[in-house]
Specification:
Length: 520
């Protein structure tokens, strides 16, 4: 599935029309999908009081179709039209024919209806918002904000810019947003995610076509195609060897979490290279791994200054290398990183993932990306990306897909720009965006698990872009599965919980199940 702009969505609709599907047919499909989502949200339609806010365009038409179906199913439906629609309004007439009450712009009964409503359908503007909300639409939304009713938005909540994700102050937060046909770019902003509630996709029969700038949604079908097959006769050596280089006195657990991430996505052998001063403690955290203590000179945490040539030999015998989790920034860490980055490029060079401290060390040098080994995956969060690019963090967050693509193409690496709706881009300009935005994943160590999962898939022969996309999806799905086990689904999740749910997440993908989440 592709992520689209408003213009691209209009083009897809026109292609559907050219293929023989009329706009009224598309509207009928959309309205029915909204009605079904409403019925599911309420646990049934009969006797429930529903207010439909009807805008002047197609979004309002979708709302009238939804209201008609809900009334047919026994709901008490009031459609409120704050702005005059084009006459004759056949959709309004049809809704009335099934028992819907239709109130005009000057009707004073709206507030009373909202006071007793179980649910409000926001079908005012959707993707049609082109300026600040004012007049009767703003007044209508102000009344809805005071209501205690559940809110379902059609396509996007009224007041959200469907391309850029800017939010009008008067926008009413939705509990559910029924996204029609394709997810819109503006929905992939963290602030919008809080306003849009739980997005659910509604298929309305649009043709397949690449979205804006080729942006793909990272979904289960993409991951299913990428996950390696595992034959019954295979053994641990068949599933790849991962080397994780990291750890320091203050970050003992980071390399172990990364190793668990690699093992939990199926890597057959994991080796953890950590400072000798902490290697014993790390080994108790992951006894399944082999361990390489790195000796340093002087300070016991100055890992690997003496052993950097030896660790490069271990790396050459690996199928993927991850450098950075908890590594620190001392002389030893810099020596190890420098030695590993001097790997020859070409077929004999294992793919490498750089995370955390490895990125911060690189960012200190101008032209850091020149002469890097290939293939290479970097996994910055917004602050690390800002340091790598030498720009403010705010500029990173303002247009994450553009930043990720520019960086990947310019640096010749695969970029995983972490955060809500993680973005993956590769040197050829391919770009994909995650559907996951889970507050529960905002805890220490989850990034280490993700980096390890990427390395684990690389070690099994998955190409870098597909490995990064798959790891991002499985990481989010594992978080969702762990959060659903009970307790607070927004907080309290530990990185180890996420790592341990990775096999279950992969299982849902292989079985064709969806673990839930945005745009499922």
């Amino acid at each position: 599935m592709n992520v689209v702009t408003v213009e691209e969505m209009h083009r897809l609709e026109q292609r559907a029309v050219d293929a023989g599907v009329s706009i009224p047919e598309l509207m009928e499909r959309a309205g029915l999908a909204v009605a079904v989502a409403t019925r599911e949200e309420l646990g049934g339609a009969a006797g429930r009081r529903i207010v439909v806010l009807v805008g002047p365009g197609n979004n309002g038409g979708d709302g009238l179709v939804a209201g008609r179906h809900l009334a047919r199913w026994g709901a008490v439906v009031t459609a409120f039209v704050p702005v005059e629609r084009r006459e004759p309004d056949l959709l309004a007439s049809s809704a009335r024919g099934f028992g819907c009450e239709v109130l005009g712009p000057n009707d004073v009964l709206l507030e009373e209806k909202l006071d007793t409503a179980d649910l409000v359908i926001d079908a005012l503007l959707g993707t049609g918002r082109g300026r600040a909300l004012d007049g009767s639409i703003a007044a209508t939304l102000a009344l809805v904000k005071r209501s205690k009713a559940t809110v379902i938005s059609v396509d996007v909540p009224t007041g959200i810019d469907a391309d850029m994700g800017t939010i009008d102050p008067i926008t009413v937060p939705a509990d559910v947003t029924v996204v029609l046909g394709r997810p819109k770019m503006g929905l992939f902003q963290p602030d919008v995610a809080r306003i849009a509630g739980r997005p659910t996709m509604a298929e309305i029969g649009l043709p397949e076509e690449t979205g804006v700038d080729g942006i793909q949604l990272i979904d289960a079908s993409l991951v299913r195609a990428a996950l390696p097959e595992r034959a019954s006769g295979d053994h641990k050596g068949s599933f790849g060897r991962v080397l994780v280089v990291g750890g320091s006195r203050n970050y003992v657990g980071a390399p172990a979490l990364a190793g668990r991430g690699a093992a939990r996505v199926g890597a057959g052998l994991v080796t953890l290279a950590t400072p000798a001063s902490v290697s014993g403690r790390v080994s108790t955290m992951m006894p399944e791994a082999t361990h390489v203590p790195l000796r340093g000179r002087g300070h016991p945490d100055d890992a690997g200054l003496e052993d950097s040539p030896a660790i490069a030999e271990v790396a050459r015998d690996s199928d993927a290398v991850l450098v950075g989790p908890g590594l620190g920034s001392g002389k030893g860490a810099r020596a190890v990183l420098g030695e590993l980055l001097r790997h020859p490029t070409g077929a004999d060079s294992p793919p490498m993932v750089l995370d955390a401290d490895a990125l911060n060390i690189l960012a200190e040098s101008r032209g850091w990306h020149v002469g890097l080994p290939s293939p290479l995956v970097v996994t910055p969060h917004p602050g690390e990306m800002a340091r790598l690019r030498g720009t403010p963090t705010g500029g990173i967050q303002a247009d994450r897909p553009r930043v990720a693509r520019e960086s990947a193409v310019g640096w010749g690496v695969t970029v995983v720009l972490k955060g809500a709706f993680t973005v993956v881009a590769d040197p050829d300009g391919h770009i994909a965006i995650s559907s996951w935005a889970l507050p529960a994943l905002g805890s220490a160590g989850t990034g280490d698990v993700l980096a390890g999962a990427i390395a684990g898939l690389l070690a099994q022969g998955v190409p870098p872009f597909e490995a990064a996309c798959s790891a991002v999806y499985l990481h989010g799905a594992a978080g969702a599965l762990a959060a659903s086990d009970g307790g607070d689904p927004t907080a309290g999740l530990l990185a180890g919980d996420v790592a341990d749910r990775l096999p279950a997440a992969a299982g849902t993908v292989r079985r064709g199940e969806l673990p839930g989440g945005a745009f499922a």
